[in-house]
Amino acid sequence: MKKNRIDVITLGCSKNLVDSEMLMKQLLANGYTVKHDPEKPEGEIVVINTCGFIGDAKEESINMILEFAEAKRKREINKLFVMGCLSERYMSELELEIPEVDRYYGKFDWNALVGDLGKSYRDDMGFERVITTPAHYAYLKISEGCNRACSYCSIPIMTGKYKSRPIEEIEAEVRYLVGSGVKEFQVIAQDLSYYGIDRYKEAKLPELIERIAKIDGVRWVRLHYAYPTKFPDDLLRVMRENKNVCKYLDIALQHISDNILKKMKRGISKKETYELIDRIRKEVPGIYLRTTLMVGHPDETEEDFNELVDFVKEIRFERMGAFPYSHEDGTYAYNHYKDNVPEQVKQDRMDLLMAVQERISNEIGSSKIGQVLDVIIDREEEDYYVGRTEYDSPEVDPEVLITKSKQIELGEFYQVQITDADVFDLYAEVV
């Protein structure tokens, strides 16, 4: 093990990643060498930032903690710290079951870790952080928590009420990140639509995005996790009028059946959902919509599911993911419904839904052949440079594989012509 090296491992969402990046900056300022998600952990100290959203995520987090608890027993590491959503929610149980961990921290008190190492937390560093993504893009977290009451979701239990960050603070962070080379901003929150209501008594997302877009050096702004209920419509004007706001919106709709939407406590109907999608596409021509859909919520019938399949076929989302319902303790669904859709039925429904979407994605990708698109270059592989269009978010969306006929620079923008497509990727050459 390497003395004064700390290995930080992040599980779960990009909101967790931002917390890890801020912690890493504090550790560096206190004289440590820090590695993020190393292939082979070698530090004397390991910090695991956990996820606790659904069963699979919790299992992954617990297995990671157990792996390093065993490493500590074997004296391969000296100290083990655990932070994040899982320890926020299950701290007392974890302390009892895995006592090898030196200390557990919740979702919002991880900064105490620096003091527990005998160091000083630097308040003057504010939002400074170590960018662990490719240097040209970063995640920009604009709020914490969630005020929605969706039946199935445990996130408000872990993260508490919605807390918007001040607009001026976010602008200052964007300027700081631009100064360190960031060109593309993935704006993230559990619920973008609610931004500002708690702090300013009105929805402020459109104003925030417009102000970010006007900062010199911001080339792309992409929006993640809007909520359909009380969607801030003025955002569509902002997307239409500002070329550096990507024509891309990640908006989790979850379902379309009125029966299931009501049981999910989503606060929106089938008719209102169709009207919202129609409004978005009319006001922002060419926009790519990404959504997430859930199958197997308690009492989802075959009729409800078929309605969902028909919805996907009709709307033809440019990007879509699906996941099976997970019966999470403490949620409204856990306390009021029976988990009465068999696991195999959930899996079969998800597979069918994704098969429908795969055909749609293939058709959308093929329609791009011959087009000239702007891409940002993320990395170089053996046979290709790998880039993304404004319609693609890192890690979850298709990539553009660019032939190595010309030398190109990572983190720069290029025009490419699409030469071929498959279900998952586009192929291109630099114009």
Q: What this model shows, in words?
A:
With 431 residues, the protein is of the alpha/beta class. The chain has three domains: 2-125, Methylthiotransferase, N-terminal domain (Rossmann fold); 137-366, Alpha-Beta Horseshoe (pyruvate-formate lyase- activating enzyme); 372-430, Nucleic acid-binding proteins (OB fold (Dihydrolipoamide Acetyltransferase, E2P)). 36% of the residues lie in helices and 24% in strands. It has 14 helices and 18 strands. A six-stranded parallel sheet has the order 6-9-10-11-12-13. It has a five-stranded parallel sheet with strand order 2-1-3-4-5, with helices on both faces. Strands 14-15-16-18-17 form a five-stranded mixed β-barrel. Helix 3 links the parallel strand 4 (79-84) and strand 5. Helix 8 runs parallel beside helix 9. It starts with a strand and ends with a strand. The mean pLDDT is 95.
